[in-house]
Design goal:
This protein is of the alpha/beta class. Helix 6 packs parallel to helix 7. The model has no long low-confidence stretch (mean pLDDT 88).
């Protein structure tokens, strides 16, 4: 394997996802050269191609740490958050999961009056401490330290009693056949409980999540009411969402 391809794998291991354009600029070659490299590396099962770039094979089943995810694709997540915030009205109750994109979203919601947020995220709770206009509803349970989320049977049982206007959910992957998937079973149980009692399920996903399958399934694609993303969808997903009547919001 040549040095450039080794460097591609190294970049992906550090970032979790890298676009073709970023790899080309970082390594001083053309987009076409990077695409050929990615095709070769995928054939050797070293990486997995996704829309616009690639992820490591390991990242399909191993969840990156929250700090790593929060530092990756920051501008993309902020764009998604700003767009998603336009869907939130005052005097409503929403749920936010423990993902890094949901954390960016809450930064855009702090001035909305009489907003109630249900969340299992310690990061979101801490951020809202200085915004008394937001009412935070916190489920019981135990702390998942590396993620900063509350999980467990008590959490799920409590959330099954809660009804919200909107649930903004981050995901590990979106695939036309596998549906919406995530890495951790505890987090999946929390997401399922919130999705079951939400009037509207809104998925927040950057381009690295398209045509990607992670460890376990959250739900089928037809349960999703709206997808907020930062990029044009792959053709197969766009056609599927058109058939399902799923709203797709892009900047």
């Amino acid at each position: 394997m040549n040095e450039r391809r080794v460097n591609i794998i190294s970049i992906l291991e550090k970032t979790g996802f890298a676009s073709v354009t970023l790899l080309a600029e970082s390594l001083g070659v053309s987009d076409m050269t990077i695409r050929r490299d990615l095709d070769y590396l995928e054939e050797k099962k070293k990486i997995r191609r996704v829309h616009g770039g690639a992820v490591t094979v390991e990242n399909c089943n191993r969840e990156p740490a929250f700090e790593q995810r929060a530092a990756n694709l920051i501008e993309e997540k902020r764009n998604i958050a700003r767009l998603a915030a336009t869907l939130v009205e005052s005097e409503t109750t929403i749920a936010l999961d423990s993902g890094s994109t949901a954390l960016e979203l809450v930064r855009c919601l702090v001035d909305i009056p009489q907003l109630t947020i249900v969340t299992s995220s310690i990061h979101i709770m801490n951020l809202c401490l200085s915004h008394p206009n937001i009412q935070i509803l916190v489920p019981p349970g135990h702390l998942r330290p590396h993620e900063g989320s509350i999980v467990g049977s008590e959490t799920v049982e409590f959330l099954h009693t809660i009804h919200v206007d909107q649930f903004f959910m981050g995901v590990g992957g979106i695939d036309s056949k596998a549906g919406i998937t995530e890495y951790n079973m505890d987090d999946i149980a929390v997401k399922k409980a919130l999705a079951a009692n939400a009037k509207q399920l809104i998925v927040l996903a950057d381009a690295s999540k398209f045509n990607k399958i992670t460890f376990a399934k959250i739900c089928d694609l037809d349960l999703m009411d709206c997808l907020v993303t930062n990029a044009t969808l792959p053709k197969n997903l766009q056609e599927l969402f058109d058939d399902l009547g799923t709203m797709v919001l892009t900047p």
